[in-house]
């Protein structure tokens, strides 16, 4: 018997074969936990297939957690990547807690270090510890391969991250301003007091509160899982005015202003130190001597130069911490969909650079300073720190002493 034909000339057995093929493809797509609404075209442009599972991103997300459609088009990262990130974060958390914990301990027990300038260093250490307070959530999510704490856990994670990240940025800015005030204008009438320092720290957190709390109530942007779905941040894939204005506002008021303060203050410090050295050399030339300063004064000047040099490391660290985050945010919020190359793996780089800054801060701002190391040697001798006592100054170089504390 000849097979029956339909109007377009296709044999029925051929049509049945095509229908079975389509049904099999639908079953395969269901097994991959992805619908046809999220095409897999971008997947071939990302990292190699061994970085991913056969399941798609968001396969184990709780029902109350909103996962951006952008992340759902990627296959879920392989479990070993989650585990590696979890182990890496355990190391970062340990280093940060030890370093910042020692800073707070020494500054609190050493009366000589309890100065208004050092209150800003303590504020920075507290901000870094706050940043690490959410790390156990990330570690637990990493070993659970997804957002195990639901939407509420994501919101709390985002709020803590905004307070600690922006708070750390402004603490860097206020430390640079205090050093600028002491070195460039050492004889200004308005001195820094403990009350002023504490009030300035409170004002910082009042200033950044809208950026931290408004997304929690979905008034201005919202907190959603990012990349691996184990950490949460503002939704950079909201392409309306609400989402994009949050990106621009956070960039300008939360990052651009602090980095401008840091750059301006340390540039003025560098100019002040250079001009001071030029004046000393000119005076020595007129007197026909090699140097007009005593050894103690030379040591004091070298301390100021050391702080000026450290400034450049601080700026580089600041840029290293924030530039990847800002770059990914603007790429997600403003680039065309076909031009985006933000894979789940790439999206985790900014999160790691910010966490790394919490490990670097205590070494740049405290452990590198001789007076802090002296106290550390006295109170924690098992660290085997061999710091020489400072030579007493004959002329009372207050400027150098203050910069040492700063």
UniProtKB/TrEMBL annotation:
Keywords: Chromophore, Disulfide bond, G-protein coupled receptor, Membrane, Photoreceptor protein, Receptor, Retinal protein, Sensory transduction, Transducer, Transmembrane, Transmembrane helix, Vision. The gene is UVOP. It comes from Nephila pilipes. GO terms for biological process: phototransduction; visual perception. GO terms for molecular function: G protein-coupled receptor activity; photoreceptor activity. Belongs to the G-protein coupled receptor 1 family. Opsin subfamily. CDD domains: 7tmA_photoreceptors_insect (cd15079). Residues 99-365 form the G-protein coupled receptors family 1 profile domain. This is Opsin, ultraviolet-sensitive. Pfam families: 7tm_1. It is found in: Membrane. It is a multi-pass membrane protein. The chain crosses the membrane at residues 80-107, 119-143, 155-177, 198-217, 246-271, 311-333. Its main location: membrane. One of its GO terms (cellular component) is membrane.
